[in-house]
Input
Amino acid sequence: MWIKRLGYWAGSLAGQIILVALFALLLIQLIGVQIYRLEREEALGLVNSRFTLQRLTAATRLLNEAPGELRSEILKASRSETLLLNIDASRPAPAARNAKLEHIVRTKLDYPPGRAVIISAETRNGMLELPPHPHRHRHPGRRPPLPDIRLYGAIELADGQWLHFTSLTDRETPGWSVKAVLSLVLLAGLLTGLMIWLLQRTTRPLKELARQAERLGRGDKAEPVPESGPREIRETLAAFNRMQDRLDRFVSDRTRMLAAISHDLRTPITSLRLRTEFLPDGEDKHKLQAGLKQMEQMLNATLQFAREDGLAEPVRDLDLPSLLESLCDDLQDNGHDVSLVEQSPIIYRGRPTALRRALQNLLDNGVKYGGKVEVRLLDGKESVRILVHDHGPGIPEQQLEEVFKPFIRLDSARNLEDGSVGLGLAIARTLIHQHGGSLELANHPRGGLLATVTLPR
Output
């Protein structure tokens, strides 16, 4: 469950921005620590080199001026963890020498040209055998690890002996100390908290926009979305409110126009019917009267649909199983073979009258053209499905979408009765679309036609 919640959170706008920000913070910290370590290493190297030269020149002056019996004490006092000193008679022969450092030490000591100063600078990763040290413990069969070497060489003393020296680097401090980790955690926590507050303030209007858009898509009358948040969000919400107003005006104008046209056409049709009564009996008279009757039926159906479409029925909770059961019972009372074979207890939020009319049209078509009808109500996590299966001849595959067009009658396929104007399925799909759902037709594998109504939760 927590993995699903984490995945859902990571897929949201706030989650993705926070993850990117934390990744950027960690990357910046890593780069900063690395830069700090490089600069620290460079600074420590410079300080150690200068400190080594100062101690080395001071120790050399003392050794040149002090009696021989004090040399061991001077060496002991001059040694440190980063500077190893030893005196012997051997002259070193390094592969490379640093003339600049030799000149600095010779100048500080005021050495004559005949007294040698030999100094070499070793890179940090260079390997060098340390000169023997009287205080270094040796373990047979095991060579101690050597730290990185900065400077090494020897200075000739006044009595001809050589002061050998080796400068070592300080031990590196760990790049990620407890304080550094704690600082990063506190910084990440503070950044996450601020971003959560900011993103909630930003995404709250977007969530309200999504909720209102869903209501609008289901035909519900949505209130204007409060225009709050950053400027771009406010502009988006304002555009949505304007779009909603324009859609409402467009639908209302279209419905009123359709109702007005249907109503106004009834007067000339009635006048024509009266005139046909004065015609002599014959085939032409009967054909004219039949045509006028069919036109009047089409206008009545269109006018009824326009009026009901413009009622803006409020949305409320309704018991879908009870609605389907009452429709099936009404048809059974009229002698039709209709059964609700499967149902789930579902409370659905929609327009009761509109849904009743849509389902009534589907059931009427089923019993009219298929005889026996079976109805199933299936509940899902994201949608509710209503399956209406009749046992009629079905519809050719290439004409499954044609039957949803207004005034389309597939007489050869469905054996429609006289008087049908071909608005039943068109009205049913329109009413289902107003709920944000869909209505699809398909030929059932066992014969007959299967109508599938899908309503979003």
Notes: The first strand starts at residue 83 and ends at 88. The radius of gyration is 48 Å. The mean pLDDT is 78.
